Amino acid sequence: MQGWQQCFKKILAVMVAGLMLGVFTSTSASADDDNLQKIKDQGVLRVALSPDYPPFEFQVNHGQGEEDVGLDIDIIKKIAKDLGVKLEIENMSFSSVLVAVETGKADIAIGGINPTPERKQSVDFSNIYYNGGQAFLVTKAKYKQLKSAKQLNGHTIGTQTGTLQYNLAKQRYTKSKLVGMDKGSDLVLALKTNKIEAMGVEKPVAEAYVQNDPDLVMFQSDYDLSSDETGTAIAAPKGSTSLIAAMNQSIDQIKKEHLISKYMKDAAKDMKTNTVDTSMLHYWNYFFKGFQYTLLISILAVMGGVILGVVLALMKMSHFKILSWPAISYIEIVRGTPMMVQVLLVYFGLGVVVNLPALTAGIIAVTLNSAAYISEIIRGGILSVDKGQREASQSLGLNHKDAMRFVILPQAFKNIWPALGNEFIAIIKESSIVSIIGVTDLVYELNVVRADTYRGVAPIIVVMVVYFLMTFALTRGLNYLERKMKYE
User: Fold this and answer.
1) Side-chain half-sphere exposure of 207, counting CA atoms within 13 A
2) Cβ contacts of residue 322 below 8 Å, gap of 6+?
3) Going from the N-terminus, what domains does the chain have, and what CATH number goes with each?
4) Model confidence over 226-250: pLDDT tens digits?
């Protein structure tokens, strides 16, 4: 037992050292002021953003497919054009956009980002390109009681997690209950279902919701802030002096030519386009695309999980500690940490060494997670096979490898089929966590549709039905195979 503990500590030490080395490598790379030249050499400007924040960035449905539009999209198109490079948009959760810049997954990040002192410790910022102010949203029913920001203290306030609005509300309304959520669409749904009483948000976003949702009312905040604190800017890696200077030139030109007002008018037109037809049938291609990605991730994760699970199970059962200890350590670490953390580690952590696409990173993370659980299921199945089967195999002259391949494992899989089926179903549902890094699965498309249509419940119901049909069909198929195996 003591030897196992020492081994486990060594493994953890190696992991921590590896992560520290990756962070150091990332930090050292970002300290060199060659980011602008790298972008020009590659001919591509990679931008991280979360397309669920109208009018800054959102997606418009043209019937044939979605397109990223909004104030921020027009600004980065202008910057890319001025730099003479192509634009590549990396869609992901808002909580991940700054991490993407820090780890080199993106060159810059945009998305109504306020350059707070805390954020400036991790990334550098361009000049302020827009300042719309702060506001609150309430329902028309609640507006009878809450008509100004001065009355909010003591009421439940919702804001997006990790934003300036969250910190401001925490400091200003000390008697209020503060609720943080990752998505603005989730906050609006919470507002309309009375889970929160007011929603703190930037004024342009509040205006967009009020214009497209007759049940909502907006009023100004009472925060006493400077323009630098409430304005929005573009984030870049630390030390990117030349890149920041180039972006500032484009921003100065945008201001000089008064393009912001034009961009906002274009965003307003696109928002109206989305609200002409908000039926879920109009967005069928969104859900179908999400279904395809969810199915692809699940199938590949199951296949990879079974193969790796068999290897881990055999390693753990080995009498050689050099094989059993790594397997035990891997299984315990994976089962002892949330899948969300594992997805972020694979995408951003490994991204320091290898620039993995979001889909590839998502498949790898789900596969590695599933393998740990499947390995224990397989190990239990192997142990459930009667010892007499092993003895019979030996009497027939089969070596250990052939006995395991032709006798033990086939019987083990027959015994564990129900448990294995449950794991397959769990993978389909749990794979939704990959949406946090921008994989366009069902949950990702759900949030996009909710942001575009300003409808909170209908998209959720559609996705629930799709998930149910997927798992129901799989359950029926697994039950059929289980009955068939009983007769063989």
Assistant:
1) 13
2) none
3) 32-130+232-276 (3.40.190.10), 134-227 (3.40.190.10), 282-486 (1.10.3720.10)
4) 655 678 999 999 999 999 999 999 9
